[in-house]
Design brief:
By secondary structure, the protein is an alpha/beta fold. It contains 20 helices and 18 strands. Helix content is 41%, strand content 21%. β4, α6 and β5 form a beta-alpha-beta unit.
Length: 504
């Protein structure tokens, strides 16, 4: 089966628009991992993403009649920009349907490249449905973002360049996966030309649609999809891409948002470029593979698939990087509320650097402190700290992996409110659109007092919100019914230890 794609890839005449991107050494991460790590710089394409390859190759295969009728796609990201530029280059009218939640930086980027933008719906699925209805209505041709042989072949040219640029031994290539177009094209080519090279697909832990399909041996739909790495936030692997991938990859690796943030920093330090989360995903997978398998002395290739990230997202990325690198740990520690207790606590830690310390007086007996400190990457440093503190009589809770602690509590510590009764706490994902907050407040309609509210957005389609409400136990079923009607993602966090320690 890979053979059929090799011919398509070799015949892809995309280089009057797409560019052959460089393959660069990464000396710093190579030294740290004790391997020869090389990066393919797809962030240097005209649209800062590999997506232009597949979109342009697909347009080149259309008939004159199809080009005359115009093309359309649904996309909130890099495919939209790749198709817009490709259509402009060929003089084809392009329409891109984007969710209303799409950040304006991406909307404007598509418009600048000459495409007509239609904002419709709050999700990609709603935008896609509308785009397909316009196909029927206007007679345009739909250009899918990944699940099409010509798109897959266009993306596969990345592998063709890679193997030509590095003729020496390659032990493994790590490729990011959303819908699977890039990975399918590259895997098909690599396994035909250099079958000894291992190919690993890398996905976010909260959007692992290929792993789900491989585990079940059939395509399936994820019930929920995380959107931090929006370039690979796909609920179901493509039909054609799965057909290719199930026979050509050597495994699937999943990574957390923290691990992607750490990989963004690694890429910056070696190349001085800022990858988007999806762009750094495959390096995160490479690092995880090395750590879990004790690999040394190998030649490993990663793909920087794109650099289209919002500037305001960088603050969150920076905050999470140290945790993603396993260089920072976060603890909730109970210390006596008495003079000198902070000094005693710090003395116990020796010369270890404290990165964060949050505290506010609550009562005259105990103080709950929120403390971050540098740790040694790998090993059992975190556990050794916990054991040392416990040995000296401190009550300690490790919150390094607690999302509520990392995303909200560290910005809210000191909010104890003993006078607040019947408080329950929910975490929400609010769609980033005008009126979303008003809709939430209107639905509650003053029924219950909001006793705490913390909002945090990372430049993505959803803002994260932590809300406390005073709701008597007998009225909580009514609240749950109202929240279900809102159709916002939410979870009850009242029993979360981060809340119990610092805010209850």
């Amino acid at each position: 089966m890979p053979q059929s794609y090799v011919k398509r890839i070799l015949n892809a005449r995309i280089y009057d628009l797409a560019v052959e991107t460089p393959l660069e050494d990464m000396p710093l991460i190579s030294d740290r991992t004790k391997n020869n790590v090389i990066i393919k710089r797809e962030d240097l394409q005209p649209v800062f993403s590999f997506k232009v390859r597949g979109a342009y190759n697909c347009l080149l295969q259309l008939t004159d009649e199809q080009r005359k009728g115009g093309v359309i796609a649904a996309s909130a990201g890099n495919h939209a920009q790749g198709l817009a530029l490709s259509a402009k280059h060929l003089g084809v009218n392009a329409t891109i349907v984007m969710p209303r939640t799409t950040p304006m930086i991406k909307v404007e980027a598509v418009k600048r490249r000459g495409a007509k933008v239609v904002l419709h719906g709050d999700t990609y699925d709603e935008a896609s449905e509308h785009a397909h209805s316009l196909v029927e209505e206007k007679g345009m041709t739909y250009i899918p973002p990944y699940d099409h042989p010509d798109v897959i072949a266009g993306q596969g040219t990345v592998a063709m360049e890679l193997l030509r640029q590095h003729s020496g031994p390659i032990d493994a290539v790590f490729i990011p996966v959303g819908g699977g177009g890039l990975c399918a094209g590259m895997a098909a080519y690599i396994k035909y030309v250099r079958p000894e090279v291992k190919v690993y697909a890398v996905e976010p832990e909260d959007a692992a649609c290929l792993k789900l399909a491989m585990d079940r041996k059939r395509r399936a739909v994820l019930p929920q999809v995380g959107i931090f790495a929006d370039g690979v936030a796909v609920a179901q692997i493509g039909k054609e891409t799965y057909r290719v991938l199930k026979d050509t990859i050597d495994g699937v690796i999943t990574c957390s948002a923290d691990e992607m943030c750490a990989a963004i920093k690694d890429i910056f330090e070696d190349t001085r470029s800022i990858a988007e989360p999806a762009g750094a995903l495959s390096l995160a997978g490479l690092k995880k593979y090395v750590a879990e398998n004790g690999v040394e002395g190998q030649t490993l290739v990663t793909i920087n698939s794109g650099a289209n990230t919002n500037f305001d997202r960088l603050r969150y990325i920076s905050e999470q990087t140290e945790i993603g690198e396993q260089r920072e740990a976060i603890f909730a520690v109970t210390i006596p509320e008495e003079p000198g207790s902070y000094k005693k606590f710090c003395s116990l830690l020796g010369k270890r650097s404290i990165t964060e310390f949050n505290y506010r007086y609550a009562d005259n007996r105990d103080a709950h402190i929120f403390v971050g400190m540098q740790i040694l990457p790998g090993g059992n440093d975190r556990q050794e700290i916990v054991e040392k503190l416990q040995k000296h009589g401190y009550d300690v809770v490790d919150m390094t992996d607690n999302d509520i602690a990392k995303l909200h509590i560290r910005h809210m510590v000191g909010g104890h409110a003993p006078q607040v009764e019947n408080e329950i706490v929910y975490r929400f994902e609010f769609p980033e659109r005008p009126g979303a907050l008003l809709q939430f407040l209107t639905k509650l309609a003053g029924r219950w007092n909001i006793s705490m509210f913390h909002y945090r957005n990372h430049g993505s389609a959803y803002g994260r919100v932590l809300v406390g409400m005073q709701v008597p136990s007998k009225e909580r079923k009514q609240l749950e019914a109202l929240l279900s009607e809102l159709n916002y993602g939410y979870s009850d966090e009242t029993d979360n230890p981060a809340y119990q320690y610092f805010l209850s």
